[in-house]
Design a protein that fits this description.
Blueprint (H helix, E strand, L loop, with lengths): L1 H7 L6 H23 L17 H10 L15 E7 L4 H11 L5 E6 L5 H13 L1 H6 L2 E3 L10 H18 L5 E6 L3 E2 L3 H8 L7 E2 L3 E2 L6 E4 L12 E6 L9 E2 L5 E3 H9 L3 H10 L5 H12 L7 E2 L4 E3 L12 H12 L5 E3 L5 H12 L39 H15 L3
Parallel strand pairs: 1-2, 1-4, 2-3, 6-12, 13-14
Antiparallel strand pairs: 4-11, 5-14, 7-10, 8-9
Helix pairs in contact: 2-7, 2-10, 4-5, 7-9, 8-14, 10-11, 12-13
Bound molecules: 2-acetamido-2-deoxy-beta-D-glucopyranose (2 copies).
The site of one 2-acetamido-2-deoxy-beta-D-glucopyranose has 4 residues, from loops.
């Protein structure tokens, strides 16, 4: 491995290491902003709504669609932008997740990383074109060329920034960015989520974070920033020096970020987001530090944080040699659904748990999207499951259920205390 031996010959204190760090960060920067700056982004699918399409084409299509653009303002629910990312073999899980979190108000960008083949990516794109509501509302986009990823490291942050840049370009004036992996799943319907966030000030960021000066950052080289196929991260023996110009913060890599903060990180009008991208460009777990550290060190955004990501980790399944008792399954389900959280991950292969969430929480019909108040007719409170969601309903209306009220009360308690 030429690269790892090259890396290992560098002591972290040598100028070589400093140079390598700078080079890598320059690459992170260009990588993260390329789709924002270049007219030709790596998106092959989805005209006329693709980011490559003439802006007027998308606008014209939206105008022709009349009332299909979500109304915004006081009294209306917010709009979420979802960046959903998966790897090789994740096409089905990504489509299932998309159906579970679909709502005509929102925007969706689906990304299969470079580990997935062209065939799988084409299948995902063709699925996104086959669902009537996605076409009608034009709010599902598929990345035409996957980013190389290891799942950790700075390439994970770069991919989110890049996805965010695209979502900013495709517009629709969204309020919050939600990043989900293929193994994640919602614990509430979108109606419930939109309801719970309706009264939340749109500038708040839901990001759990704590000061972290303990972690020793091993110097790594994330080749995924440099190449087009997935690569494993190489480790060096050195450690990153502690910065003294800013304090490090760590938290879940799955925050819900306000549009203003996302724009701040993508466009980087001041130096902090860039400086921190450089700092984290050769550290592992950059995704657990980057947004947290930018936020907590920024004058402008420090006060707009809620120290919670409204998300849970799925409790680990019982060990395989143990008989998976019905009680245990029940308590795992209760822990998730009773928590009041909006999302959970990672589900692994727990089909029984997912199916129960589909049936009892989302009431999602087999192979259909989660119904909501936006469905015209046929989605009454009773017997939702057997009806397809038909188009033409009011996309500005939401109908909350018990899960929505639990989430709203969690959020009110978080926001009320000023967290
Ligand atoms: C966020 O909450 C955690 C515990 O829930 C706490 O340890 C941490 O200090 C809090 N972060 C900040 C910045 O207050
Ligand atoms: C943030 O909050 C602190 C204390 O709550 C306050 O002193 C400071 O002025 C606030 N900063 C901004 C930019 O609002």
């Amino acid at each position: 491995m030429a690269h790892s031996s090259w890396l290992l010959t560098c002591s972290p204190w040598s100028t070589f290491a400093a140079l390598a760090a700078l080079m890598t960060s320059a690459l992170v920067l260009s990588y993260a902003s390329s789709s924002f700056l270049n007219q030709r982004a790596a998106y092959d699918y989805d005209d006329p709504y693709g980011p490559d399409a003439e802006p007027s084409a998308a606008a014209a299509a939206a105008a022709a669609a009349g009332a299909l653009v979500p109304r915004k303002g006081p009294g209306y629910p917010p709009v979420f932008a979802y960046y959903i990312t998966g790897g090789r073999g994740d096409c089905l899980r990504v489509t299932r997740l998309l159906k579970a979190v679909y709502h005509p108000r929102n925007r969706y960008l689906l990304h299969l990383d470079a580990g997935a083949g062209a065939y799988e990516r084409a299948r995902l794109a063709s699925y996104a074109r086959s669902e009537q509501s996605f076409l009608e509302y034009g709010n599902v986009h598929v990345v035409g060329k996957g980013d190389a990823l290891d799942g950790r490291g700075p390439s994970a942050v770069a991919a989110v920034l890049r996805g965010a840049a695209v979502l900013l370009r495709v517009g629709a004036d969204w309020d919050w960015l939600v990043t989900l992996g293929a193994a994640d799943y919602p614990l509430v319907t979108q109606d419930d989520l939109l309801y719970a966030f309706s009264s939340v000030p749109r500038d708040l960021n839901f990001i759990d974070h704590r000061a972290d000066s303990e972690t020793h950052h091993v110097v790594v080289l994330d080749q995924n920033l440099l190449q087009s196929t997935n690569a494993e991260i190489s480790f060096s023996s050195g450690h990153r020096e502690k910065p003294d110009a800013f304090e490090l913060f760590r938290g879940s890599p799955w925050p819900i970020l306000s549009r203003a903060f996302v724009e701040h990180c993508v466009a980087a009008p001041d130096n902090l987001p860039r400086t921190l991208l450089m700092y984290f460009s050769n550290t592992l777990d950059a995704a657990e530090f980057y947004f947290q550290t930018v936020m907590a060190n920024s004058q402008r955004f420090r006060n707009s944080t809620v120290n919670h990501s409204v998300r849970l980790d799925v409790p680990p399944p019982p060990p395989p040699q143990q008989q998976p008792g019905a009680d245990q399954q029940q308590s795992r389900y209760d822990a998730l659904v009773g928590s009041g959280a909006a999302f959970a991950g990672r589900f692994g292969d727990d089909e029984a748990l997912l199916q129960r969430i589909d049936e009892e929480v989302l009431r999602r019909p087999l192979d259909g999207v989660t119904p909501g108040a936006w469905c015209a007719g046929g989605s009454g409170e009773e017997g939702v499951a057997e009806s397809e969601c038909s188009l033409g309903g009011d996309i500005d209306a939401v109908r909350q259920g018990a899960a929505g009220r639990r989430l709203a009360s969690l959020i009110n308690s978080l926001v009320g205390t000023g967290a």
